[in-house]
Amino acid sequence: MKVYCHDNLEALAGAHKAAFHEAESVSFDLSLSWFANLLATTLTPREKLRLCVAEDDNGQVAILPLYYEEGALGPRKLQSLVNFYTSLYAPITSAGATNDLLIRTLPSPSENGRTWDEIDFSPLSIDNSAFESVFKALRSQGWLPFKYFCFGNWYLPVGGRSYADYYEGLPSRLKNTVKRKSKQFFATGGARLEILTGGDQIESGIADYNKVYATSWKVEEPFPQFIPGLIRVSAERGWLRLGIAYLHNEPVAAQLWIVAHGRAAIFKLAYDEKFASYSAGSILSAHMMRHALDVDKVCEVDYLRGDDAYKRDWMSHRRERWGIVAYNPRTLAGLTGALKQALGEWRRTLSPYVKPLA
To answer: For 248, how many CA atoms within 13 A lie in the half-sphere containing its CB?
Structure first.
């Protein structure tokens, strides 16, 4: 058994890269391509990668992608290599790896002369067996672990349906909107829908996406190079579905979908608010869905992060993503964090029974 850490993706061996390839079949944001773009476009110079690797004598591997801020003024914290773009995080394991091997990648509160105050993993699938294994292992290593809710995740198991079959099951209000507004949309000059998957149009597609995003209700991107990088990487992998709606030959709505390993992920949506009355976003969603079901023939469509009301119209099922945060009770910052976490959970437990002050 070997356990070690890397501080860069280039140090990964062939077996490690194969494990990432297996992981991406679960979700695109467990791929090596995803992590590489995340590192290149969102981490600050003070934020450092820590790849914890455990490898057994049979060549099975478990990898835990983490990062930390070097010289942080607050608690010394390790956290999963994610940000608000991430819809699912999980340890990277080869097909035959056991939970015991995964547990060997977990950092202890004090190791190699370094002490950690806090460690945070999210967003995790609570249905994955590794969730409880990690939680129990952290406790056995001397951490004080807590579970917390991250967000709801709406999705659609396709079950072999065509788009026509799926469309018939939509709420009547949504069907009427798509049908009525489509007539209005295509009666307008310069109206068209496009889905870009690669080739020479990618850079112009990125420009059109950025133009729509800038005129939408969305807040400004804190990492402006992340989405263009993701679009380019997705095109290289054959995963890109960049949908753009045009009116008067100008982009008015854009959607970034990622189709990988039989799953379609609806990653980003935006529309120009000046053209809200055309419902170009809904028309484009229907067009993208038709392509996903009838052309890509996916087995699942995933709306990723959040319980937004409109997602219930398009999807049929809901699951939850949770996190695990653990504190070191042997440091002041760790103990303080654990007490605050415990107090917050206690208040949430009591909240249904405590009447607010008048």
So the answer is: 4
Who's near 143: CB < 8 A, 6+ residues apart? Answer: 109, 119, 326, 327, 328
DSSP for 188-203, written as a single string: STT-EEEEE-SGGGHH
CA pair distance 332, 111, nearest whole angstrom: 17
Return d(Cα 318, Cα 246) in angstroms, integer: 32
- Residue among 157, 256, 181 at smallest CA distance from 216: 256
pTM for the full predicted model: 0.92
Give whole-number Cα distances, 191 to 4, 183, 243, 277, in Å: 56, 11, 14, 14
Report residue 146 as tokens: 């807590």
The Cα-based distances of 57 to 3, 51, 60, 104 in angstroms read 12, 19, 7, 14
Backbone angles phi, psi at 257, to 5 degrees: -110, 150
State the 10-residue block means of pLDDT for the chain, 358 residues long: 90 92 95 97 94 91 94 88 95 88 91 89 92 93 96 97 96 95 95 96 96 91 95 98 97 98 97 94 97 98 96 96 97 95 84 50
Nearest to 320 by CA among 86, 136, 30, 124: 124
Task: Report CA 42 to chain centroid distance, whole Å.
Answer: 14
Question: E strands, the chain, where?
Answer: 2-6, 47-55, 61-69, 77-80, 92-93, 110-111, 114-115, 118-125, 144-157, 192-196, 240-247, 250-260, 263-271, 300-302, 317-327
Q: Which residues pair with 77 in a beta bridge?
A: 118
Burial of 9 (0-12, 13-18, 19+ CB in 10 A): middle
Domains of the chain, first to last: 2-152+320-353 (3.40.630.30), 159-298 (3.40.630.30)
- Two tokens, residue 290: 């038709």
**Is there a contact between 307 and 149 (Cβ–Cβ < 8 Å)?**
no
3-state secondary structure of 211: helix
What is the three-class DSSP state of 265?
Answer: strand
Count the Cβ atoms, other than its own, within 10 Å of residue 175: 15
